Amino acid sequence: MNKSNGFTLLELMVSVSILMVLITLGLPSFKSFTIEMKVDREITTLHRMVMQTKNIAVNSNTNITLCPLNSSNTCTSDWHKVLSVFSDHNKNKKFEPTKGEVIIQVKEAIDPNDKLQYGKSRTALVFGPTGHLVIWGGNATFKYCPKGHEDMNRGLIISRAGRAYQTVAHKDDGLDRNRSGKLITCD
Fold first, then answer.
1. DSSP helix/strand/coil, 150
2. Is 21 inside a domain boundary?
3. What is the domain extent for residue 123?
4. Does residue 16 lie in a domain region?
């Protein structure tokens, strides 16, 4: 009597076929899941950074700025690049180490294919010792838009009082909107 403990070629082919069908069906869902996680991570990290910037301004009793710096240490509107938090004693949105200003925190750039915008052309968030924004017109909405996935755009709203609110998905269509109901979109 020959007793075999393996699979027949037919059983193996059927198993591989079923596995391929499952992978084909599951791969798009997995990609969407990873993009959603990336967007959530970036918005949460940015939210935490904004709150830390505000708290440092209050606790150190000085102006603290959050912005992307260019090569001459001036704030720009290139929010997709490296973000820096620094003491900004004269609130001129320029990092000046010769005047005793120090870099406190740095956040790496986002995925180069994605977009991160703050308002139309805002260059900095400057928190004063009270925890409020001290630059006129500094309040706006951060908008994170993953390339090719506009249905996963998210936002972080910053009020003049220095409060930060993450956008939430609307109950009807599942798309994130700001507090007045406008869709989160990048230009």
1. helix
2. no
3. 30-177
4. no
CB 38 within 8 A of CB 146: yes
CATH number where 146 lies: 3.55.40.10
Q: Which of 114, 122, 112, 125 is nearest to 77 (CA)?
A: 122
Average pLDDT of the residues of the chain: 91
Amino acid 44 reads T
Scanning the chain, the segments in alpha helix (DSSP H) are 9-60
pLDDT tens figures, 162-186 = 999 999 888 888 899 888 888 899 8
Query: Two tokens at 140?
Result: 């706006």
Residue 6, domain member (yes or no): no
CA distance 87 to 51: 15
User: Of the candidates 155, 118, 153, which has an alpha carbon nearest to the alpha carbon of residue 137?
Assistant: 118
pTM score, whole prediction: 0.83
pLDDT at 1: 61
Q: Give the pLDDT band (50/70/90) at residue 25.
A: confident
Q: CA angle, 106 as apex, 66 and 51 as ends, to 5°?
A: 50
